[in-house]
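User: Could you write out the 3D structure of this protein bound to pyridoxal-5'-phosphate? I've included everything you need below.
Assistant: Certainly. Input first, then the structure.
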Amino acid sequence: MEIEKYDVVRLTETFPVIKELIQLTETCWMNPNKQSFQLHKQKMPLTEQDVKDAESRLDRFAPYLQNVFPETKETKGIIESPLIAIPTMKSRLESRFSQQIEGELLLKCDHDLPISGSIKARGGIYEILKYAEDLAIKHNMLSFEDDYRKFDSEKFRLFFQQYTIAVGSTGNLGLNIGIISAKLGFQVTVHMSADAKQWKKDLLRSKGVTVIEYTDDYSKAVEEGRKQSSLDPMCYFVDDENSKHLFLGYAVSAIRLKKQLAAMKVKVDKNHPLFVYLPCGVGGGPGGVAFGLKLMYGDDVRCFFAEPTHAPCMLLGLATNLHDKISVQDIGLDNITEADGLAVGRPSGFVGQVIGPVLEGSYTISDDEMHRLLAELADSEGIELEPSALAGMMGPVMTNRQLSRQTLEHATHIVWATGGSMVPLAIKKEYYEKGKLALRSFYNAT
Ligand SMILES: *Cc1c(COP(=O)(O)O)cnc(C)c1O
């Protein structure tokens, strides 16, 4: 369904936030219809058991992963990232925005996830492992009790070689699917949108992955990938817009985060709310994490999505309740952003409907601001991220502007750093320089 021009005018009257989206101003949408998780849970198509099953599957594969990816040796084949305090960055934010931030500021370091240095190492790798396990079980090559190191064998690789995995991606998902699929022996085709960075395509090709490039955006790459895959019965398409497996892979993070918070003696309860800020592209990553967190903490956790001002697809879908029936192009936006992981014009309808009702809100952030935060995080904490991963960093400033001091007094804020450690040095430097420049113009303007 296309939204016509005159509809946009009417929509804007009903949902004034659209006007701010069209003007590319940074804005925050607070969910006016937020439901209690206990109520909403009964209507959800996925359960806590599904997340636990996903966790067990990752446990079964841990010995295999430890074998084939030596960087996971330390965590015994569990793909997990640290949770750390970033007090110096907190002071920076407070001083630049002249805004006190109540509560502690933590960073979830998914940019440091082994294998591919982005949050996609959760969902993407999980979905391929699930598919490989299903195939092996179906062909009587495996039972759940086996030692999964048997996946690292000529027999398994030859078997998987008959199958092709395909995926549409702006870069990071393709990178993950490509790396794990090639390791297992699958043939892989990645359909890449125009936003995908050259180094990501080069890296994939070096691993024997077929990369098909499109001059169009992410939605088109997914659509084409889906279409081509449907013609090949031996091809499995990882559907980023609708996949429950990806979603569950992301959700497992919450079980582990809960343990990390407990180990750090961080309290989460009614009087100690947990605020989590998640960069959002199509929605699977942040949606899956938010779902897992809601299962762990119910209404004591408050989740916000963050998107570029040029690509606020989830905010638009949620605010209008039109989900994937509307795109940012429909309201005249270009979906062009340096935050390649978030360059998505049309959100996942599945995610919006599953997690939307229990989200606290969603906000937008400009490319310049992401770069400023990137440079500030590098300077203050020595942590280097890719621009997408900074979208969450405005969250604590924003909630402290919007909510009462009383609400936030005993709060903990977690900014989810979604990617960055694989970015080549020269490009990291470019991002940083751009951030420094944007900081200078920020200070000159104020
Ligand atoms: C993909 C990605 C996201 C967002 O995940 P979605 O599932 O697309 O919403 C955020 N940050 C980075 C770095 C990503 O690669």
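The chain has a mean pLDDT of 95.
User: Perfect, thank you.
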